């Protein structure tokens, strides 16, 4: 059943809100890592443990975010999330000003930011189909391109940490989130889609299990995130610091070139959308990722290393978009936020696990060793995905996005 088309201004304001959010979160990804690695100079095992401690509590909050996203007016909910997200940077700025910044304050910073992110993400992604007039494949890809471009601003600001000072950078981060509140305020009224049904944790889990293809995509995405995304999050900072003897500016450059690859891939992907067989492309890209990881593992010169990260960003940018668009296409609107919360959970639960495992692995060997598990996992995903998941046979039908 088709619903009334949203106002033409809805999608641009949604992009503005999401872009400002992404700029703040890009800066957060930089700050959390560099506070541990570059400023406090903690070893890899402690940095991995800190990331795990910061990301385990939000896993529970993420499911709550799915429930709230299907129960509360979307516009009001996103406005509250922007306001809440602007507060933790101010807290850490005050702690730093008082000279009290420590390992555990950084962990708390990570917990607060990741928890609010977890509350916000399911609702933010679920309302996408309610504010756009185009098919969801292109809507998500355009959003990814726009938010990633603005996200580069966050990495750039992080790279200026030594010039601006930590306190100023944290104030800028808070301002980015707060500015997004006014963009969210301009969204149309987004009432609960099915007020007669009461969302719950069980509904999302049952829906994912009931819809076989969604279940398989979420499972393969978990495997992919376990050591591929984990390698980027915990291994790359130590490759920058220990192998290439880099500083905060080089680390920011690494994050920028990775994101440029992700943006470029989505620009190209947009030209071919809607895709008839997104699952096949997702599986083939697992094989190309093995080549990229071997490239980085061979410890090339700095410019070749940066080029490899562009390729890695391109690869992960496409696969992430394909997973999200396929799940959005298949998820019924009444359960969409809860299903998306499970998808996001598959991303997030893998990160703290891989952070611990890879942290101890590279501390006992070398940062480059942390890339090897990702090579094996990519091969496994291709084999399982091609053989049993149904992804290879799946044919996308954009028209199904209009169903209730």
What does this protein look like?
The radius of gyration is 20 Å and the shape is globular. The protein is mainly alpha-helical and 404 residues long. It is built from 16 helices and no strands. Residues 399-404 have low confidence and may be disordered. The chain starts with 9 loop residues before the first helix and ends in a 17-residue tail after the last helix. It has a single domain (10-402), classed as MFS general substrate transporter like domains (Growth Hormone, Chain: A, Up-down Bundle). Helix 4 runs antiparallel to helix 5, helix 5 packs antiparallel against helix 15 and helix 13 runs antiparallel to helix 14.
Descriptive tags:
404 residues, mainly alpha, 0% strand, 16 helices, globular, Growth Hormone, Chain: A, disordered C terminus, single chain
Structural class: mainly alpha
The CATH H-level superfamily is MFS general substrate transporter like domains
What would the CATH topology be? Answer: Growth Hormone, Chain: A
Beta strand count? 0
Number of structurally distinct domains = 1
Low-pLDDT residue spans: 399-404
The gross shape turns out to be globular
* Helix proportion range: over 70%
Question: Helices and strands in order, then pairings?
Answer:
Layout lengths: L9 H30 L4 H26 L4 H12 L1 H11 L5 H24 L1 H4 L4 H24 L1 H4 L1 H20 L15 H10 L1 H32 L4 H24 L6 H20 L4 H29 L5 H29 L7 H16 L17
Please sum up the structure shown:
This protein has 404 residues and is mainly alpha-helical. It is built from 16 helices and no strands.
